[in-house]
Structures are given as structure tokens and as C-alpha cells.
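Subject: Interface between my chains keeps coming out wrong

I've been trying for a while to get a sensible model of this assembly. When I model each chain on its own everything looks fine, but I need the whole thing in one frame so I can look at the contacts. Pasting all components below, labels as-is. Any help appreciated, I'm running out of ideas.
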Amino acid sequence: MPSTRRLAVAGAALALGGLLAACSGSSAHLGSGSAVKGQRVKGGTVTVAQLSGASPNDIFPLSPATNSNGYNENLTIGSWPYIVTIGDADKSIVNSRESLFSSLIYSAGNTEITLVLKPWKWSDGAPITTRDFMFVYNLLKVEYNDWIDYYPGQFPADVSSVATPNSHTVVMHLTHAVNSAYYTDDILSYVPLLPQHVMDRESLTGKVGNYDETTAGVKAVWSFLQKQGEQESTFATSPLWQVVDGPWRVSTFQNDGYYAWTPNKAYSGPVKPVVSKVVFTPFTTDAAEVNTLRAGTTAAGGLTIGYLPLNDVKQIPQLEAEGYDVAAVPTNGVAEVLPNLWNPVNGPVLRQLYIRQAMEDLIDRPLLVSKVFAGYADPGNGPVPVNYGQQWDSSAEKGAGLYPYSPAKAIALLKANGWKVVPGGTDTCQKAGTGPGECGAGISAGEPLAFTMLYASGSDDFDEQNADIQTTEALGGIKITLKGEPFNTLVATTGTCNGSSHPNSICSWQLQQYGYDPYQLDPNGSGLFNTDGVSNYGGYSSPEMDSLINQTEYGSSASAFDAYENYAAQQLPILYLPDPDFIWMYKKNLAGAFPENPFSVNVQPENWYYTKPAK
Amino acid sequence: MSGYIVRRLGQSVVVVIGVMILTFVLLHMEPGSVAKAILGNGVHVTQLRLAMFDSLYGLNKPLYQQFLAYVQQLFHGNMGVSYQSLQPVSSLIAERLPRDAVLVGLSTLLALVIGVPTGIYQALRHNRPMDDVLAGTWFTLYAAPDFMEALLLIALLCVEFHVFPPAFPGSVTSVGGLFANWKALVLPVAVLSINSVAGFSQYVRSTAIQTLAEDYIRVARAKGLPEKLVVTRHVLRNSLLPVITILGLSLPDIVAGALIAEAIFNFPGMGLLFWQAALAHDFPVMLGGTLVIGVATVIGNFAADVAYSVLDPRIRYGRS
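Reply #2:
Try treating it as a single job with all components included. I did that and got this:
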């Protein structure tokens, strides 16, 4: 899954988190939506609430690297789907029915990919051919560093040559072997096809040419399309954006982010839109959106689909009375407390696995799920959410996970490693040294087991969750001092710290909690836990982990993922936390929208239709 | 007077430049990387990408060069581009300012229409039961947080009785759209008015009480001038001076927007624009906003001074 989608959900979590609050007493479990029975009705408008702060700002599907908006994909994916479409109802899987590929064959030791395109057409009647693939490839081959979804070393940097034996077959030769599942799920799932016969131009008035076949031409076309992509006033009108191959096209776009999709009547795919219009309406805050849900149809025609912050779950009965059903969608990410293993003061302490294990033992995750998240969260047993998709949960994550809540176990672990444990106080290292039963390298006698935890402020659920963590850690004598900071400040001041570089200016933080790290479809920890991972801010480093992650990306073993997952669950490169679900309310007479997987919520409305009660 | 105006204009320019420099320096003193704050901490946010961001927006240059570049573009009417929305700051402000002018302007007008007569009425019934009842009412409403008033009104009039919509439709982007959806304007205008009414009425009441004790009021009454004329010609005019001050200071409020009302009533205005920019380290928007608010403050004060002299001919500005 592209970073745009991952960012989108990350942003959503933050936005929702802003209003999440203690919802004590309620632990009722939501359904994940249910199939609506009744006669299918053709037509109708579906109005979907946009999460606050989720307005897109760029319609060109290959957004530049300097664009921070993770929601642009939500605008464009209906018009220009990716070669590989992911998400199928409640399954986090490849949706081959709606994908552009007819077949994907990995050969020559997984260094060669043969992609056969379906015989679909653009909305103007022109066939979709390998020339369209080559257009995208040529642009990205030159400009991949300026592409928001480029992952270092991957497509198209890893493509050594491309051949197109016929108009529907592409053969890519890679510079290295890849894991086919990973490459399909996480790499090809963010490469769209674009109409070369429309977009290969350097100006709106100029003619379409084969500019993409030279480097200079690519630069001119890229620059032109990027500039056009930011012109909000022409999103729905520019001829550049009128030729699509997805089931939808953008028919309205207003500043402030209100936009609408209408069906692409020439869509070649098998799932044709049934509703006649989908409106995405922005809200300034969660409170405004929830008020609109509560007011029902008097509020600007009402919302067909809206989200519900977790601290508002008590309103579900009233909303059901207003004609809504409820669905919970798991989050595609891993929630965490991030330890800085290279903090100048207590990095050596956090580098000790037994310390991280004791800290994880002291996090009462079931309590957090029931108390803070009202029952609507993944238990957070390891690096992969177990509610995320049945295909991913390994043995280490089943049940209560490897580290069920146990203060007694944590205390025993600390004592066994030379610490004087003072429940309710602050533990100190009693036996310095690196031998058995001693505190470990770099830890001096008398050193306290105390940390400052920075966390993203402005979120009631984070406040409550972290206060609970502070309380339960104290039961093992681990003193946590909490300090809230605005999310962006937290991000801006956090540097990547590792063994070779941990300057005090960016590595003075000890623990951080800012939400969750979003995943692509294959949640393999690449970038998070590998030694040179871009988001490995805490500096965790293990040759074993690097090798296992590499296997998930480049190896051919089908069991590579389980091996990685079990190891990451045991090693605790981060402290795992429960990951809250998203709660959606949708009109009872709307079918096909839920149950839904975390990757395609509200972006596959071709599956939606209204119903009327069966007679 | 003209000399005074010229001097005030000169001072205003200095003030605005000072505000600009101060804001620029303070914003750039914020700790951490702006590029990281904007692009986030995802696995795709490489050092190269951060460097491209810095290069694109000139953040890799020395601070004085960044400032000079900013001033230079300002002289060309360019306030920069928002790091977040990628739209020109001037467009973002131009979209939101008229809407906020309508929202805050209407609420101020409503507050004036209610507050000034009420203040005069209270002054005329000074220390009588109705004075106490009205003062108590206004103080109670003034003391209540506006977000609470907003939520109570929504619960009652939107959720319970479905009289008004609780939020502006997301499709409303123009002033015309606001009036076309006038029902959605009612509650935010009402909420914003409540606090202002209390201010206006109590200022007017206090000044009117003092005015009523003046000799010229006694003279007017002794001459047999009808009470209605005494009130409208003498009391009202002199009691409006504090209102002028408040109105003058309200101009920057219009420009700065009404954050709480905007947040609750789904009204994307200036307040939310600046708030979100501040959270996201979106410097161009913050700078543009501060500049516009600074100019509005200067203009508001200046307009209040001029209005003083119009309302009270005894006030003359000039060299001492």
C-alpha cells in the first residue's frame, strides 16, 4: 500500500485521537458491519464525511516528494486505480477483480516480472496499453526521488530494463530478486497507469507527444503535470484529468476540500458504479461531524457515512435510532511506545532486552483496550495487528501474546538482573556489570530506572492511556514522567538516533508515544525495525532482524513473514500497545460499504448501492 | 488633523514591519525541522526528501536571506505558498476573510443592536430590578464559555428540535453560499453575539450613568427637552465612545476569525487556518496571517481614533 494511504490513516488516527476520551464502563463490542438485505436501487447520492484535516490538494496521482498530504490518493484512486488494487470487503488482500493486471508472473528466480494488462479502455475509448505503463515508468525512472511513494531502492530504481513484447504485456527485469508477495502487495500496489495520449505534454495548449522518451522531455512533462496537479480550481475541469480508467471521475472540487465523484460510464471493469454520485464533505472538527450525524437529515441533507470518535460511542443507540448502522474497521498499523536506545542518559538501559520485556510486562493492554478504547482496539500483542487480516497473525501474537500483563514477572525479571525493585518508587541498579545477574553494559550502580515519555498532546485517549501506563509501570518500580507536546513539534524534534550518530540535539528524548506507524499491505517492519530504516528513530539494530526483514522483501520463502513477526514480537524494538479501531456509521439502507478492510474504506464506492425493503 | 494622520500612518508602517520581523524570528526559533513537521515521520520520509523540501522553500538558506526573500516577494504581492495545502497564502486568506467578515460582522452588528439600547435602558433604570436582572443575565452569559453555549444550542435546536442545522455544509465556500444557507448562520452568529452583547451593554450602561449625571443633561432637561431627545441626542452619543474603542479593536477579531465557532459549526475561517498552521509549522500561513492581523489592528486603532474626534468634537489630535 502506498504511503499516501498509510499517511491518510495516520492522520485520521491523530484527528480522531484529538477527541478520543475515556469511555468508561462501556465495553460492548461493535460489529464490523453487516450485509443489508433488500432490493437494490439504482442511483442516489452517497454523502461521506471526510475526516477533519483530510482534504486533498493534488490531483496528479504521482504527487511530488515535497507534498505532505496523505489524502490525495483518496481523491484520485477512483479515477486512476493502481496496477494492483488492494482491499476486498473485509479482507486485506489483493483485489484481482478490480486490479488492472490480468496476470503477474514472477520468474528467473524472482528477478523478472511479466505483467499482462486486462483489455480495458480509457474513458475516451482508447485502449489501455503498455504505452501507458511505459509513460508512467519513464516519468518515474527519471523523477523517482521526487515521487511521494518512492521507497528507497525499490520500483523503479530496481528495474534494470523493461520490454513490451505486445500491447498488453510488460516484462520487467529487476536488479535483484524479490519476494513476490511483498512486491505485488507493497510495490506494484502504488503504481497507477496514466493515459499517455492525454498527459504526455508540456503545456495545456501544446500537442501530445512522446516527450517521456527523453530525460529532458520527462522533466518538462513532470514539471507541467505537477503544477497542474496543484491547481485546485481545475481539478474537475482540466482536460488532463478527464480521461480515466477507474470507475469514477472527479466531477466537483471546491476549495476547502469538498469534492464529488460521478461514475465513469465507460468503465471497463466488472464492478460498475450503482449510485449516481458520491460526495465527500469536509469537516473542520470531529465535533462538527458528530453533531451533523446526530442532527440526522436536517444537517445539509445528512450524512450517509460518517465516523464516530471513540469517546462518542455512547451515542451509538441514538444514531441507530436516526437510521444508522455501525461498523468497526481495524487500523493498518502498529501502536507503540518508542524507546530511544541511544539516549545519552539511559540509552544503555533501554538497549537491554530484559528491561524492555519488563516494561512490556507492566503494560496492561487488555485494560487499555477495554477502558481507554471501549473495547474497539487491536490487543497490540506484537508488530502486526491480529485484527488486521487473518493471514498475518503468527504464533507469537496469538492469545495474550508473549508478554501478557504481569507485574510479578516484571519484578522477578528486574531482580534477576541486578536491580533493587521498589514498587511505587524508583528501581536502582544494584549490581553493575555485564555478567549474569548484573544490570548490563553501560549501566552504573545506583542508576535509576526512570524515563521521561514524550507524547502527542491534545488527545484525551493518549492522556488516559499514558496515565495508565505510568501507573502500571510504577508497580514494577519503573518511574515514567509524562510530557505532552503538539504532534508536529514531537515529529519535528525527533531525530534518528543510532550507534554511529546520536547527537544530543535530536536524541535527548527517551520514550515517545505519538500514535502508530502505518503499514503497507505487507506489514513487514521494513523502515521501522531494520538497522537503516528511515523510521527506526530509536536505533534498534539486530543482524537477525535485518535478515528476517530482508527475507520478507527479497526472499522466496513463504514462511519468511512468520519468522520475522515472531522475532519482532519477542525482541521488542518498540513497546507494543493496543491499536484503536475506526468506528463508522452508515445509513441502514446503504449496502456494500461495510464490512470493510482498513485499506479501502470509502474508496471503492462502486460496490455501494441503496436498498429498499424487500416486499 | 492631517499631520496627525500622516504621523500615525508612519507609525503604523513601523509597527507592521516590527510585527513582521518579530514573527519571522520567533517562528524560526521553533525547535526542530520544519520539513519533518510537515512531511511527517513515515518510512518514505528520507533525508533526501527532507532536503528537497528545505531546498524548495529556501529553508536551507541563512535566516537573513530567508527574511529578505520573504520581504522581496511581499513587495510583489506574494505572501508565499502554504507548506501544507500548497495554495498561495493570499488565496487562502482571500477565501476565508470575507466569510469571517460576514460571521463576525453580523454577530458584532447583532450585539450592537441589542447591547447599546439595553445599556441605555439599564442606565435609565439604574439600580432598579430590571437593571439587576439584565446585568445578571449578561454577566452569566458572558461567564459561560462560548463552546458550551454552542453545544447547548446545538443539542436543543439542532438535535432535539431540528430547527437549525448544526454545521455549515462542506459545499459552502462563498459569501453568497453563507446567505443561501442562512439557517446555518443563525447559531454561530448568536453564540458569537452573546459575549459581545454583555460587553457592549455594560460599557454603554456605565458611561450612560456618568453622562446622565452631567450638567448639560440637567440643562437639557431644565430647558424642557423631551426625555426621548435627551437620551438620543446627548446620552446615546456620549455613551458610544467606549463602544467605538471596542469596535476598533474588533477589526483584528474579524481578521483573526472565531476559532471556537469555526471549529464547532464547520466554518473554515481564518481562526482555524492560523490554528492549524501553527500546529503544523506552516510558516508562510503564520506569517501572512500575522501580517494581516497586524495591519487590521493598526487600522482598527486608527479608525477608532478618528471616530472619537467625530463623535466628540472636544477631542482634537495634533501637536501638543
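Reply #3:
Confirming on my end. The mean pLDDT of chain B is 90.
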